[in-house]
Amino acid sequence: MNIVLIGFSGSGKTTVGQELSQITGKGFLDTDILIERRLGLKIEDIFTYYGQRFFRYIEREVVKDLLLVEDKVISAGGGAFIDPMNIKNLKAAGVVVFLNEPIDAILDKGIPPHRPLLKDENRETIVRLYESRLPFYKQADMDIITDGKTAVETAEQIFLFLQEKL
Ligand code: S3P
Prior knowledge:
alpha/beta
């Protein structure tokens, strides 16, 4: 069974995903890396040269291909679990876990670099984007509050919850 991690940029999808991959022995995939490999371009460059619409189109294609993937931990880009087709396909691909990190905690740590949608935006705009996405993230199969936990602790908690299904 695949485990799909969703949540905003900076919520820990990569670090928690890599820990979970170690704990479960499942390989780790990241939709952004799959997109970069498919186009031979960095995410930032895709946004710069082709725009967000094209990025979302490729993202949808990559998500659709995940239906053929088995037994992986998958980190989905922060805007993936918004599109209705992606929501349907990601849920069909595996158990979807929302890494629920409050936006203040994310902003205090700092948004990770090279995020074209967020890099030049002020706090208020980022908070608004986060809030507009929360109702979608809440459609995950599981909601894990990550605040105050290390990536290892979060990964262990997910593992314990899912143990019987894995
Ligand atoms: C995006 C988040 C990024 C990446 C792209 C768009 C978004 O992924 O897919 O920059 O719309 O929030 P991370 O969630 O891994 O930062």
